[in-house]
Specification:
The protein is mainly beta. The strands form 6 sheets. A 4-stranded antiparallel β-sheet has the order 1-2-3-4, with no helix packed on it. A 4-stranded antiparallel β-sheet has the order 5-6-7-8. A hairpin with a 4-residue loop joins strand 3 and strand 4. The chain is globular. The protein starts with 14 loop residues before the first strand and ends in a 21-residue tail after the last strand. It is found in: Nucleus, Nuclear pore complex. One of its GO terms (molecular function) is structural molecule activity.
Amino acid sequence: MIQTGLIQSAHDDLLTDISYDFYGLRLATSSLDQRIKIWQLDETNGTWSVEDEWKAHDAAVSRLSWAHPEFGTILASASFDRTVKIWEQTSFAALGGAQSNGSAPAQHVSGSGSSSRWVERAVLVDARGTMRAVEFAPHHFGLKLATISSDNHLRIYECLEQSSLATWQLSEEVDVTALPSMSSPSSLSVAFTTPTQTYATLEGASASLVAQALQQSQPALPQRSGMGNREADGGWCISWCKERYWGEVISAGCGVSGTIKIIQFSPSRRPTTLLALDPTPSGALRPLEGGVGSVPSNDSEAPTPYAITSVAWAPSCGRSYHLIATGGRDGHVRIWKVKPAEDNDVIEADGEPRWTGTIVADFDHHKLAVGRVEWNITGTVLSSAGNDGRVRLWKATIGNVWRPAGSIGVEQSEDSPDADATMEDNAVAE
């Protein structure tokens, strides 16, 4: 049985993100109401209670990320006000000492009566579009974080003063759409410009502005049906590779192209694209394992690309390959098996081995847009949340065939005919 709990009236408006801390005992939530709430789990009865809450931004908060606990209790928040803010939890005693030394005063104080307060330590303001995602790097790379915004730029920041968290250096800034795809050098990547405003709405810019931008950026390319051209049709997402061996590698998606680029950052050279994951038949890497080959197709019945709204890189846990999950506006949850260059025999034209990717699972159970995909700590179970109001679980069988492992509705009643959540059998292998 799926164990569930319910937090009634968590926010005054729609929730935009939830994020567990490293230990899974605290939960941060954000909303269109511009507020952040921190929840604490009571392990004796499994209930959650508000520990802190504050108004964090001047527009909707889009995404949250906890830093590794070795750096302290630190939270990053991204917002539609084009900023990313760094927050630190500080006790009253430590806070009083900081103020007496002339440091920045505490802001956004919780009214919950807790013995701590969250202090705004830094504000990152380089984005020229609404901030859509933020994620701290794996702790072995130091206190770094990645952000992506609707200007299609991926930015990497590094904290230069971990004691105060006040100084963050922009170490990398790259236009994801401009990076060439090493996996498909002959293919053309279509990326439409999506104009934004300082406080952009979810509906994006006006049709006339978008049409003008499209004409200027891609005058010779006809728009394919289903792609959309508003900011609201796009998707911006990032996820770090959890394994240290491969260096600083990030999977990123932006705009309406429907592809995920795997990008490697190195101090000695410019960022490079290791692989582009494109599920459409005209993309470079196509097949379901055991299915059609990876030769580009001109099939007129080929599905049109839809924006990828979420990407999640699974912990490796000893596997010789990587698993990357994506969720899109087409309602599909896809799982990719990605092999690094040295672990496969696919050779580039210049004689160098390259990374390869294969779709090993493709589910459309949500039917509506997928808002989030997330792995468990071992990378063996995938969860997805969609606009159908359900959270679904996916798990591999003994034969590495991915199957539905259950689902639950957000507001289902106990006597609902599918309250179970339609627990599909996940013990049968093909």
